[in-house]
Amino acid sequence: MTSLRRLLPLLLLGCLLALPAAASPLTNPRWDQLDSEQQTVMAPLAGEWDRYAPEKKKNLLAIVPEYRSLDAAGKLRLQNKLKIWSDLTLEQRQQIRNNWKTLQSLPPADREKAIQRLKQGQLKPQASG
């Protein structure tokens, strides 16, 4: 009985040390390492997935849990947006990122006006001032 008492803490420690390695996500998963749910959500990006930086993959995979809670229309909308993004050229993507940074730098009232203009289809930003 005393040997079992000595052995039990060692077994528990071994199990605890093994858990983080088994439970930790891959830091830079290839497409074929994604599970079926992740592949379903990220399907529009399949062709370029393996070229993405690890941080970008991490950010994209953070969408998966949120995707589960979306209704069918929301899931379709999200995948359409991913598809549209994947179809953009690098230059178009960079322009969108620059526009986003500009938008975020605006005072809240101006930002809201700009967002309303964009929603109304006036895609060209207007200079403030």
Structure in a nutshell:
By secondary structure, the protein is mostly helical. The chain contains 7 helices and no strands. The protein has 2 domains: 21-87, no CATH class; 89-124, no CATH class.
Radius of gyration: 23 Å
Give the proportion of residues in helices.
55-70%
Order of helices and strands: HHHHHHH
Mean pLDDT: 81
Number of helices: 7
Strand content: under 5%
Main β sheet profile: none
Oligomer: single chain
Structural class: mainly alpha
| Structural domains: how many | 2
Poorly predicted residue ranges: 15-24
The rough form would be described as: globular
Q: In total, how many beta strands? A: 0
Terminal Cα separation, in Å?
Answer: 82 Å
What's the topology here?
Layout (H helix, E strand, L loop, with lengths): L1 H22 L12 H6 L12 H8 L1 H6 L3 H16 L2 H16 L2 H12 L10
Description:
The protein has 129 residues and is an all-alpha fold. Helices cover 67% and strands 0% of the residues. The chain has seven helices and no strands. It has helices at residues 2-23, 36-41, 54-61, 63-68, 72-87, 90-105, 108-119.
